[in-house]
Amino acid sequence: MPSDAPTSSVAVVANALLQADIVLAVKRATSDYIGKPWDWDDFVDLTDRASHPCGIFRSRVVSVFAKLSTDPGGMELFEAELKGLAFLRAAAKARTPTPIGTGRFAVGHGTFVLLSEGLFGRHGDSRTPQDWSAMGHALATLHHTRGHHFGLDDFDGFFGPLPQDNRPTSSARWADFYAERRLAPRLRDAVDSGSLPMTLADGVEHIIRRCSTLSGPEPQPTLLHGDPQPNNCVSTDAGAVLVDAAPYFGHPEADLALVDWIEPVPVVLFDRYNEEIPIDSGFAARRELWRLHAYLAAVAVVGHTALGRRCLQRISDAIDAYR
């Protein structure tokens, strides 16, 4: 039953978006957006697919996806996310969610909500082979867009909750950009978290020094999603819709490596991509190099979890592979 306040105390615990002041803010923002009073019928909790409380307020008029942050930098993070999606739409005509109004709203002191039109799609095991193929096509569509240099002049972003520095490097070479803007900052984050043993930190430092010899042929600067794991793509009947982007111009292999850095995905995704943009035969040997910054990010943020421990082992394996 729609209401300014949740009808169940259990629901409040399940998702913080159902707090009365947040529900009221969602109703007001959506009413302003459609130009008439709006209310919701039920709520779909999607928090298990994201690092923030999130879900969809379903309505017969327009459903609304909402994401909540109570972090001090929450508004900055949401602004970067909206800029990133707008950039993908403008640069590559990518399909992304439609923001509700400005897309981000402050609710009281230190509470921020991201709002967009709700998308109902398939996730996880419910995805069909056609869904995975559509994801490969969506990624190839981005990668057809080229830039003048590695990085992004327009704005910086975030990889998860961690700041992502998109400034181009003076050398204008991909290996230097990856070493200086991706590996080195994530290494500092992981060391500062206390979850990365110094032996592994030393090994990553060695890889950073060797990046120029490990990176393969120099690529053309290519528009990247930046974090294209499957949870950052909604599979709809009309095709793949990209979400949670952290775009910049880089090596297309950097996106391909992150598609399945957490869990394997069906090979049909890569087959469809390869039909549109051939994947270099050396990619398999470089895959773990491009995943290394994501492993370090996971150690920095969730080093105490099973994922964090698994990434520690993968960092160790990468150090052995790239000696």
Give the strand line-up of the largest sheet.
Answer: 1-2-3-5-4
Shape: globular
* Strand portion: 15-25%
CATH architecture of the largest domain: Alpha-Beta Complex
Radius of gyration, CA atoms, in whole angstroms? 20 Å
**Helix residue percentage:** 40-55%
Q: What summary fits the major beta sheet?
A: 5 strands, antiparallel
Enter the CATH topology name of the largest domain.
Answer: Aminoglycoside 3'-phosphotransferase, Chain: A, domain 2
CATH C-level of the largest domain: Alpha Beta
Overall tally of domains: 2
Helices, strands, pairings?
Blueprint: H1 9-14, H2 20-34, E1 42-45, E2 54-58, E3 64-69, H3 74-92, E4 99-106, E5 112-117, H4 129-143, E6 157-159, E7 162-164, H5 174-193, H6 198-214, E8 222-224, E9 233-236, E10 239-242, E11 248-250, H7 252-259, H8 268-276, H9 283-302, H10 306-321
Antiparallel strand pairs: 1-2, 2-3, 3-5, 4-5, 6-7, 8-11, 9-10
What does this 3D model show about the protein?
The structure is a single chain. The chain has 323 residues and is of the alpha+beta class. It folds into two domains: 9-117, Phosphorylase Kinase, domain 1, CATH 3.30.200.20; 124-321, Alpha-Beta Complex (Aminoglycoside 3'-phosphotransferase, Chain: A, domain 2), CATH 3.90.1200. The protein contains ten helices and eleven strands. The chain has helices at residues 9-14, 20-34, 74-92, 129-143, 174-193, 198-214, 252-259, 268-276, 283-302, 306-321, and strands spanning 42-45, 54-58, 64-69, 99-106, 112-117, 157-159, 162-164, 222-224, 233-236, 239-242, 248-250. The strands form four sheets. Strands 1-2-3-5-4 form a five-stranded antiparallel β-sheet, sandwiched between helices. It has a two-stranded antiparallel ribbon with strand order 6-7. Strands 8-11 form a two-stranded antiparallel ribbon. The radius of gyration is 20 Å and the shape is globular. Residues 1-13 have low confidence and may be disordered.
